[in-house]
Amino acid sequence: MEKELEQHTTDCLRIVMFGPESTGKTTLSRMLASHFNTEWVPEFSRDYLQKKWDDQKEICGLDDIFPIARGQMALENKKAREADKVLFCDTNLLETVVYSKAYFDGFCAPTLLKHALKAHYDLYFLTYIDVPWVEDDLRDRPHQREHMFAKFKKPLDEYNKPYHILRGNVEERFETAVRMVEELIKKKKVEL
Predict the structure, then answer these.
(1) What would the pLDDT profile of 44-78 be if each residue is shown by its tens digit?
(2) Where are the transmembrane segments (predicted)?
(3) Could you tell me the residue ranges of all domains in the chain?
(4) Kind of pairing, strands 13-18 and 39-41?
(5) Does this model's pTM top 0.90?
(6) Which of 3, 5, 156, 166 has the most CB atoms in a 10 Å sphere around its CB?
(7) Rounded (5°) CA angle 92-98-101
(8) Directed axis angle between helix 145-158 and helix 93-103, to 10°?
(9) Is 30 helix (H, G, I), strand (E, B) or coil?
C-alpha cells in the first residue's frame, strides 16, 4: 500500500490548489491548465464520495481515507506523465491529511502524513474563503469556513511549504496565479 502513496518523480513543476471546500480550487485548476496548455489533476474524492452518497447515502468514513489517498496519487502520477512542464493539482495528500484530522478527532495515519510530507510541490495556492459558498451533496461546513481555512493554513506554515493565499473573485485569483506561475517558470528555467 505504501508504494501506492508515493509521488513519482518527473521534470514538471507541480502546483497545487489547497484549501477548504467551495473555495474555487477546481475552477482555478481547469483555468490554469487551459491557459498553460497542460494537464490538471481532478480531486479523486469528489467522484469517490459522490458515488458512496448516491449508492448508500453515507458520508466519508475513516476507512475511506486510504482509498482516497491512493486514488489521488494514482491520478496525479498519471497526469504528471502527460503534463507539459507544469501540472496543476486540484488537491494533494496533504489536503487529505487536513480533512482526516478535521473529521476524525485529530487523527491522521502516520503513513499518510509521511507520504504527504515527502511529496514535492513547487507552489501551493491556498484558496481563501471570500467566494460564495456553493452547496452540494458533499459539502457540509458552510458556517465553519474561517475555522477550516485556519486548519488548511496551519500545515503549510508548520511544514514550511511554499504558498500564496489567493483572494478575490475568480478573475483576480486567476490573474494573480498566472503571474506567479510565470515567475516560477522563469525562476526554474522551465521551457514551455
Answers:
(1) 988 887 788 889 888 888 999 999 999 999 999 99
(2) none
(3) 2-187
(4) unpaired
(5) yes
(6) 166
(7) 140
(8) 130
(9) helix
